[in-house]
Amino acid sequence: MLFPVSSLLLLAIAGSASAATPGRDRSSLNADWRFSRFTSNPDSLSYNTLRSWILPQANDFLVDGAKHTAPSGTAPGSNVAYVQANFNDAGWQSLDLPHDWAIAGPWNAPGISGGMGRLPTNGVGWYRKNLTATASDVDGTKSIFLDFDGAMSYAAVWLNGNLVGGWPYGYASFRLDLTPYLKEGNNILAVRLDNAVENSRWYPGAGIYRNVWLVKVDKTHVAQYGTQITTPSVSSSSATVNVVVQVENLGNATRQVDVTTDIYEIDQSTNTVASGAAAVASIKPTTISVGAGKKQAVNGSTAVANPRLWGPPPAQTPNLYVAVTTLSATGANGTKTVIDTYETRFGIRSIAYDPSKGLLVNGQHVYVQGVCNHLDQGAIGTAFNFRATQRQLQTLQEMGANALRTSHNPPAPELLDLADTMGFLVLDEAFDCWSSGKVTNDYHLLYSDWHEADLRAFIRRDRNHPSVIAWSIGNEVSEQSSSQGGSLGQQLQNIAHSEDPTRQCTTAMNAAGPTAALPGVIDIIGLNYEGETGAYGSFHSRFPNKMIWGTETASCISSRGTYLFPVTSANSAVYSTSGGADGTHHYLSAYELFTPGWGSSPDGVFAGQDRYPFVAGEFVWTGFDYIGEPTPYGGSGGARSSYFGIVDLAGFRKDRFYLYQARWRPDLPSAHILPHWTWPDRVGQTTPVHVFSAADEVELFVNGASAGRLKRPNASTYRFRWDSVKYAPGSLRAVAYKDGKQWAVDERRTAGDAAALNVTVDRAAIAGDGKDLAYVSVAVVDANGTVVPRASNEVTFSVSGPGQLVATDNGDPTDYTAFPSAARKAFSGLAMGIVRAQKGQTGQVTVTAKADGLAQGQVTITLN
Ligand SMILES: *[C@@H]1O[C@H](CO)[C@@H](O)[C@H](O)[C@H]1NC(C)=O
Ligand SMILES: *[C@@H]1O[C@H](CO)[C@@H](O)[C@H](O)[C@H]1NC(C)=O
Ligand SMILES: *[C@@H]1O[C@H](CO)[C@@H](O)[C@H](O)[C@H]1NC(C)=O
Ligand SMILES: *[C@@H]1O[C@H](CO)[C@@H](O)[C@H](O)[C@H]1NC(C)=O
Ligand SMILES: *[C@@H]1O[C@H](CO)[C@@H](O)[C@H](O)[C@H]1NC(C)=O
Ligand SMILES: *[C@@H]1O[C@H](CO)[C@@H](O)[C@H](O)[C@H]1NC(C)=O
Ligand SMILES: *[C@@H]1O[C@H](CO)[C@@H](O)[C@H](O)[C@H]1NC(C)=O
C-alpha cells in the first residue's frame, strides 16, 4: 500500500510538534495545564501506597523478572479532590509543558543541598488538564495512549478519577493506556509527582519537564518502541537492513494484518524526506494473525544499494534514513486499508570496538572527543527546549567535540534526534546508582523493583539511533569494587545485550582496580579520572581484548574571565586558597590549570592519553557548567552551580574552550591569549600570559616588544606560557606559526572605563512558535568597543514586540539573582538574556539592555 510521500513529511522532522499519518495521530499534549506545588503532602498518597498498582506498568519490560498484577478493588487516590472533574483549579498556575517547577527559585530552598543546586525541587506537584475526546476516539476501535518523555518524579496519573498508572524513575520515558477510562466529551487528567529532598547528586529539576504526547491508533498497531532496525553488514556498495516490527493487538479478537516497511532517504539539508522521493528499499508485505491481547514480531530484511552511511563529521557525514512501516487490514466493508503508519529514523553504519585502536565507525578510526553533560539547560532549567539543546551541541561541535555522555541518566529523546542529525557519538547512560545509594533518596530505592524495566525501556527507546555507540549501565556505582559489582554488572549487561546485540556496554569506574569483578565482566573499560593516574596501562595489560576509554576526565574548575595570582608553574594543580581559588568570593582561576584532588588539567589529560594510544578517547567533565555540584563551594553559603564546564552556565566560552578546540580541531588556525589585559592594580607585577594554540611556534608581543618566540614543547601540549611577563597597560599580541609561516593572530587590549552595552544575538531570526529561543549577549564595553573584562554593571533587559524575556544569566556560579530576573549583573563583562517569541506571532521583537551611566544597546529579532 503506497500513499503520498508528502504525508510523511511532518513526522520526519525531528522535534516537530505533532503529526498524523494514515492510522496514527500523535499530537503534543503540552498546552493548557494547571499546576500547584505543595511542600507538605496534600493528599496522604505516596509511592508506597500506589506501588502495587503502578508496578504492572513495568510488565512490558520484564523478561527475567516476574510480571506484576494489580490488587483487586479500587486503586488509591480516586477520592483525592485534585483528580475530580469538579475540583476548582482556578487558583492553580496556568502553564504549558515542558515545565520545571523549581528553576525560578527562590534560592536556598530548605533541605536542598548545594550539590542539588539549592532550588526548590522537593514537594508534591499536581498537574491537571482537560482532555476532549470525540465520539470516534471512544468507538471501541482505537487505543489512546499518553506518552511522557519524562516526569520528575514518581509520576502517578488519573483519568476521570481512575488511577491509570505511573512510573517512578524521573528520567524514564513511559506510556499509559488511557483507553479504558476515556469518555466522549471532557475528561480530566491529573498527574501527581513527588520529589524527596536529597534524591540526586546534581540539580534534577522537578515537574513534567519533557514533552507529553497523545497517541491515537487502531487497537492493532505497531507497539511502543515497536521497531528494531539493525544493519549487520555495511559496505559502500550495499547494506543489509533488518527490521523487526512488533505488532500489538489490544482488541478483543484475532486480527490479520499485512506488515510492510519502505525505506526512504532523509535529505540532509531539510532533514525530511524529499517530496516525491521513491523508496530506496522495501520489505515485502508479510501477513500475520495477532491474537487478542497479544504481540507478534515480524522480521524482515532488505538491502540498500550504495548506502549513504551515517558517521561523525568532519571525516564522515551523518546521513539518515527513515523506515516507514504500514499495517493494513481488511475493514468491515471488505477493503484493505492502512490501519497504522509508524516511522523509524535510523542510520546505516557499522561500529567496532578495537582494544588497540579504539572506536571504528564504518571501519574508520574515530578518536572520541567527548564531553559529559547533565540535563539542565542553564537558566531555563530542565524544562526541555529543543533550541537550548541544539545550541549547546552546536557550541560543542564548534569546539571539535564529536561525542556526548548523557551523564548520568537517559536523555530527552530529542537530544538523540539532534545527535543523529549532527553526527555526535553518544554514550547513552542509564543509572547513577544500583542497589546501593549515594544519597538518601536516590534510585537505589527503586533498583530492585525497576532496574530491569527501566533498562529495557531505555534501550528499546534509544536503540535505533545511529548516534548511540554504547550503553553505560552505571556511573561510579558504589558496588564497583565489590563482588556484587560483578554480579549486578553482569545482570545489567545481559539485559542490554538481549535488547540490543549490536552495541557493547561500559560502566564509568572511578575506584575499581583491574582485579575487581566489574571490569572483568563489562565489555568496555570506562575509567573516570583513573586514567590520569596511570591506570590505562594496568587495565590494558589485564584486559588486552577490551576497549578502554576515559568516561570522565579532567574536572578542571574555573570561573570565566577570573584570573587569580600567583599562577602555578605546574601544568596541573589542585586548587587551594594560595593558588587557584578565591575562597572569599568563591571564584576559581581561569588559567585552566586547577582541579579538585581527583582531577587533572586538560593538559595533563592530553599527555596521559597520548602516552596510551590504545585509549579510545575521553568524555570531559563537563561540556557545560550545570546547576548544582558547585565543587569546591558546595557547603552552606557556597555557590549554586558548577565550575567544571568548558562553557559557563550562560553559554559563554571559558578560555578552556580554545584549549580543547586547539587539540580537537588542530587544522583550524588558532591562537587564544589569556588573561585579559586590564589590570590597573597590577602595574609592574608578574602577570603570566598563556596562549592556547595548535601551532608549532608562537611569539608574544607585549606593547609591541617581543616577549619571546616559543616552540611547542611536545605534541600533547597546546599551551604556550610566558610566565614572567610584567603587566603594563597597552596590548598583547600573539602570532602563531605553522611550518614557519604565520598561521593565526590574537590580541588583547587594555580597556578604558565602561561606556556602553554592546548587544548581539545568536540568530537574527527565530520561529514565532512560543518555543524557539534567541540568546541575547550583552558586553560591557569601553568607548572603543573593547570589553571591560571585570565589569559587573547591573544590566536590565526589556523586550518590546511579540516576545518575552524568559531568563537571564551571566555564568557566575555565585550569582543568587533569580533566573527570571530582568536585571542581571554582568560577570567578567558579560550578561545573557534568553528571549522567546509569543506563540503564533510574526513581526519583530526588540531587546534593549540598559545600565546606569552607560549607553544602552539593542538588537532586533525577526520572527518567522
Ligand atoms: C477545565 O475546564 C474547566 C471548565 O472550563 C475550568 O474551570 C478548569 O480550569 C479547566 N482546567 C484546566 C486544567 O484547564
Ligand atoms: C469487542 O470489541 C468490539 C469493538 O471493537 C465491541 O463492539 C464488542 O462488544 C467487543 N466484544 C466483546 C466480547 O467484548
Ligand atoms: C526476529 O528478530 C527477533 C529480534 O531480533 C529475534 O529474537 C528472533 O529470533 C527473530 N526471528 C527470526 C525468525 O528471525
Ligand atoms: C472502507 O472503509 C475504510 C475505513 O474503514 C475507508 O477508508 C475506505 O474508503 C472504505 N472503502 C470503500 C470502498 O468503501
Ligand atoms: C610536554 O610538555 C609539557 C610542558 O612543557 C610537559 O609538562 C610534559 O611533561 C611534556 N610531555 C612529555 C611527554 O614530554
Ligand atoms: C581608544 O583607542 C585609541 C586609539 O587606539 C586610544 O588612543 C584610546 O586611548 C582608546 N580609548 C580607550 C578608552 O581605551
Ligand atoms: C559588538 O556588536 C557587534 C555587532 O553589533 C559585534 O560584531 C561585535 O563583536 C560586538 N563586540 C563585542 C565586544 O561584543
From TrEMBL:
Residues 121-216 form the Glycosyl hydrolases family 2 sugar binding domain. The keyword Hydrolase applies. SUPFAM superfamilies: (Trans)glycosidases, beta-Galactosidase/glucuronidase domain, Galactose-binding domain-like. Residues 358-510 form the Glycoside hydrolase family 2 catalytic domain. Residues 1-19 form the signal peptide. Belongs to the glycosyl hydrolase 2 family. PANTHER family: BETA-GALACTOSIDASE (PTHR42732), BETA-MANNOSIDASE (PTHR42732:SF1). Residues 684-744 form the DUF4982 domain. One of its GO terms (biological process) is carbohydrate metabolic process. It comes from Thermothielavioides terrestris (strain ATCC 38088 / NRRL 8126) (Thielavia terrestris). NCBIfam families: GalB. Residues 757-860 form the Glycoside hydrolase family domain. This is Glycoside hydrolase family 2 protein. Residues 480-501 are annotated as: Disordered. The lineage of its organism: Eukaryota, Fungi, Dikarya, Ascomycota, Pezizomycotina. Keywords: Glycosidase, Hydrolase, Signal. One of its GO terms (molecular function) is hydrolase activity, hydrolyzing O-glycosyl compounds. The keyword Ligase does not apply. Transmembrane segments: none annotated. Residues 480-493 have a biased composition (Low complexity). Residues 230-349 form the Glycoside hydrolase family 2 immunoglobulin-like beta-sandwich domain.
